[in-house]
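Shipment paperwork, digital attachment
Item: protein structure file
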Amino acid sequence: MFLRSLLAGLALLAFSVTAQAFQAVDALTPSSSGRFPAYPVDAIPLSLFWAQAGAMVDDDILRTTVKPPTETVLRLGVGGRKDTYVYGRQLLRLEGRVDGYKYNQFSDLDNVGYSALGEWHWEVGNDLSGVLGASRRQYQRDLAQIQRAVKDMITQTNYVANAAYRLGSSFRVRGGAELLEYETAFTAPGNVQTATGILGLDYLTPLGNTFGIEYRQSHGDAPVPVQAAALFPDNTFKERTLALTVGYVNPFFRVAGLVGQTKRDYSALAARDFEGRTWRATVDWLVTPKTALGFETYSLPQSLIDLGASRVVVHGVAFGPGWAPTAKLNFSARIMREKQDFSGDPLVTTGVTPLDLEIVRNLRLGAYWEYNRQIHWQFAIDHGERESNVVGRDFKYNALVANVRYLFW
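Attachment content:
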């Protein structure tokens, strides 16, 4: 579970520099979240609901070289989670949220985003368990990529089925399948679809640490850009990854990650193929019970609808210290640098556009204040910049973000 949650967090952090700056507060967690040993972890209630309000001031909301007027964005949202044991240890989990965004200068960007999830966490005996679920979310396309005040909503749908079986006390075999779909209809009509199969074997220590091997195979299908439609018929690929995994916890360190070899082959234009070492890893060093130093690194190819369904190889490193002086208040920072290589973009390979190489950097400072059990405040300062070899893609921005959330059960 520790390995899964930390790697999921890394997936969300990838490409975060150019994402909506509200993410700077959404990523903050209370002192009782489990990162700081000085404070007991709050028990997870079966039901939790919340309402929130936030404001952001951003001096370059469109992420352009020539800055537009400073923008103020307001956010109102509600959400919740409901866990129900339907029979024995069979758990049904339902989650959902709706957020409305109101822009002061660029009212055309006003939008409502949502997410919903339903999962069945099943168990058969003491050795066999798994998850069957589906989720969907809708959000505004990353403005740093389109660099225009255009409302362009993306719908992401994800289907998951997995299972794990304990082989005695020391080994676990696991497998699963996932279908991920992105749909958009405005800036780049079409969708991106990726189906993935996973098979793994883990060694479990008496302390709950894991060391394993994992094989992933994916088949992806993305729309062909209009500018390159006459040059090749489709944009499908097959990707295979063989990796070693680790999830390790002791009183001073928490380590989670995987490292392996990835090969991606496209059905057209072999020049876009990728083969190389890939990894994702995070380390938390618990310097004191109230102080933690976090380190992250990742290198992998990705197909993102926000980037026009291009294949982008990203190499990133990040450092994130945290300090919780009290059980109600903690401070955090995150410094990140990421290199993005667009050499797999079909428009680059066919000579329609030049090769795009970009460096993005980000600095975030955050504070989480649990005023009382119901009212939680989050504050963040967010600075980001991008260097690109394509004219007009450079930018620097600064944003101030505040959010208050009211929890009720």
